[in-house]
Amino acid sequence: MEEKFSIQDSIGKLWTKLDGWLDAIILKLPNILLAILIMVLFYFVARGVRNLLKKYLLKHIGQVSIQDIIAKTVYVAVLLIGFFVALGVMDLDKVLTSILAGAGVLGLAIGLALQGTLSNTVGGFMLSFMPSIRINDFIKNGDASGVVQEITLRNIVIKTPQNNITVIPNSSFVDGAFTNYSLESRGRIFVKCGVGYESNLQEVEDLTVKIITENFEQKNSEEVEFFYTEFGDSSINFTVRFWVDMTSFKQEHAARHKAVKLIKSAFDSKDINIPFPIRTLDFGKNNLTVHTEKQIGKESK
């Protein structure tokens, strides 16, 4: 004969189960407290090791980004060690084995699902150890340009000249091209201009080279270079190139600003014309009639 379902028996079994769990928790309470204590201890140890590395051991590494990456890696590693020790104290060896096994499967799944993110992470490691980009360098990547504030495992943070913060994924640096203005202390400036067709071209060249050479020091093998480039619509155009101290956009703009003012002033003193575009209208045999307001009024009557 089948046994009848009894609510009282079910509640009794439930309380027995809960009672057993409560006894287990009470018995494990010292282990739980010890595990918590271990995690807190390893947290402070991880912070101490990280600060010690950044303050003493990593200061000999020139790249600040490398210092940060190593310090963060050591910090996480110490925390993981503390987590595994805490699990061992709580006699959760089987749980630890399951976690490690699950982590492998989960890691594979995450790797397939987050290929773009992992690409940025690998790019972050590569950029951290590349001497071509450093903290406080002035860089340009596509339309974004500014001073490097931070290099993380996922992106690079730059501050633009407009004082805005721009976040650029690491993959765009690793897979694409970028310009670093801070690696070299000297840079070349290009200034373009045009003079009228009636101008003495040799005089224009000599005057431009002279005024630039006198105001911008050219070091070692550097020199001012002048080239006529084309016959324009209303002027003969040229480009002058010269070297200046330049590690940012601001210095580039300042040097070009100064050069334009000097060239304009020198040309004005020698009556050299810098023409603006002129459009000539030729009506040929057609007659052009100009009507005044009075004539229009008479015609309307």
From TrEMBL:
Occurrences of domain Mechanosensitive ion channel MscS (ranges): 117-182
Domain Mechanosensitive ion channel transmembrane helices 2/3 positions: 73-115
Record field: transmembrane: 25-49, 69-89, 95-114
GO molecular function: mechanosensitive monoatomic ion channel activity
GO CC annotation: plasma membrane
Keyword Membrane: yes
Localization: Cell membrane
Keywords, ordered alphabetically: Cell membrane, Membrane, Transmembrane, Transmembrane helix
InterPro entries found in the cross-reference section: LSM_dom_sf (IPR010920), MS_channel_1st (IPR049142), MS_channel_C (IPR049278), MSC_TM_helix (IPR008910), MscS_archaea/bacteria_type (IPR045275), MscS_beta-dom_sf (IPR023408), MscS_channel_2nd (IPR006685), MscS_channel_C_sf (IPR011066)
Membrane topology according to the record: Multi-pass membrane protein
Sequence ranges assigned to domain Mechanosensitive ion channel MscS C-terminal in this UniProt record: 192-274
Record PANTHER family: SMALL-CONDUCTANCE MECHANOSENSITIVE CHANNEL (PTHR30221)
Protein family (similarity comment): Belongs to the MscS (TC 1.A.23) family.
Protein name, per record: Mechanosensitive ion channel protein MscS
